[in-house]
Amino acid sequence: MTNVLLVIPPGVKPRAGFHHALHRAAETGAKLVALVILDPNEIVRIAARLDSAFLGERVGEGVMKALEREQQVRARDLLDDIAAHAKKSGVETIALVESGDTGEVCERVIRQHDVGYVVLLAERRSWLTRLLSRSSEMKIPVFQGCEVKVVEEEDDDGGLDPA
């Protein structure tokens, strides 16, 4: 039996992707490995925005650490919610928060947790966002030996329960 990996990028709410991964894990008797990958550069980008908002004042180290802690707390809260919902369905959950390159993190987690099925979440973007981001390069990690399902998430404030 191989496990199901749910890869959650920062800022994406895993509603449809979570239900797909949970269903797959339940029907195969696998564990659900829920992985939130934090972007190590996000704090730097936020700090740069704050720097410009305050007319060149530098954001202090205390603010940077508070932003990092907030990012970790949000990820943990999301994983706790996922684990609680999975438990109701009788699916055991392994909750992980990692930071770094998505490909490297996923490769390591796949090996460590015997993953055979991966659910990747993609954010549904407006036509304007797609147009403006055409020039940016997107790296998709390689998942050797895994079946991969990409699920596009709607941008809503709903929780994990279906509407």
CATH architecture: 3-Layer(aba) Sandwich
CATH topology, anyone?
Rossmann fold
The percent range for strand residues is: 15-25%
Span from first to last CA?
Answer: 31 Å
The profile of the biggest β sheet is: 5 strands, parallel
- Strands in their spatial order, largest beta sheet: 3-2-1-4-5
Structural category is alpha/beta
Defining key terms:
163 residues, alpha/beta, Rossmann fold, five-stranded parallel β-sheet, 5 strands, 43% helix, 22% strand, globular
Give a verbal description of the structure.
- The protein has 163 residues and is α/β, with parallel strands linked by helices.
- The protein has a single domain, classed as 3-Layer(aba) Sandwich (Rossmann fold).
- Helices cover 43% and strands 22% of the residues.
- The chain has five helices and five strands, in the order βαβααβαβαβ.
- The protein has helices spanning 16-28, 42-53, 61-88, 102-112, 127-132, and strands spanning 3-8, 32-38, 93-99, 115-123, 147-153.
- It has a five-stranded parallel sheet, with helices on both faces.
- Strand 4 (115-123), helix 5 and strand 5 (147-153) form a beta-alpha-beta unit.
- The longest helix is centred in the middle third of the chain and has 28 residues, at 61-88.
